[in-house]
């Protein structure tokens, strides 16, 4: 299995920035439910009931993945161009 290279810190920073904006875009109720379910699951979906997993999917479906990608790509490409 090929070894993965660590991501540069600036990519992680940009990702966290975009993810935070999406997180703030969710309603307070959805953020609270998602946090509670994430803690309960301890990172394992099998620790949740089918209903709770469906609730997580419902909340995450509100996040616009295409917009996140559109926000990330220009930042990463622009930053990489400056580093060269």
What labels describe this entry?
single chain, 84 residues, mainly alpha, 4 helices
Give a structural overview.
By secondary structure, the chain is mainly alpha-helical. It contains 4 helices and no strands. Helix 1 runs antiparallel to helix 4. It starts with 8 loop residues before the first helix and ends with a helix. The model has no long low-confidence stretch (mean pLDDT 81).
How large is the share of residues in beta strands? under 5%
What's the shape?
globular
Order of helices and strands: HHHH
Q: For the residues shown, what is the average pLDDT? A: 81
Derived structural class: mainly alpha
Distance between the termini: 29 Å
Largest sheet: none
Brief summary of the model shown:
The chain is mainly α and 84 residues long. 73% of the residues lie in helices and 0% in strands. The protein contains four helices and no strands.
Q: Layout of helices and strands, plus pairs?
A:
Elements: H1 9-25, H2 28-41, H3 50-60, H4 65-83
Helix pairs in contact: 1-4, 2-3
């Amino acid at each position: 299995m090929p070894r993965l290279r660590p991501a540069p810190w600036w990519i992680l920073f940009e990702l966290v920035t975009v993810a935070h904006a999406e997180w703030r875009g969710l309603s307070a109720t959805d953020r609270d439910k998602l946090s509670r379910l994430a803690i309960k699951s301890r990172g394992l979906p099998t620790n949740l009931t089918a209903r709770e997993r469906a609730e997580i999917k419902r909340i995450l479906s509100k996040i616009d993945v295409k917009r996140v990608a559109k926000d990330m790509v220009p930042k990463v490409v622009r930053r990489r161009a400056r580093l060269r």
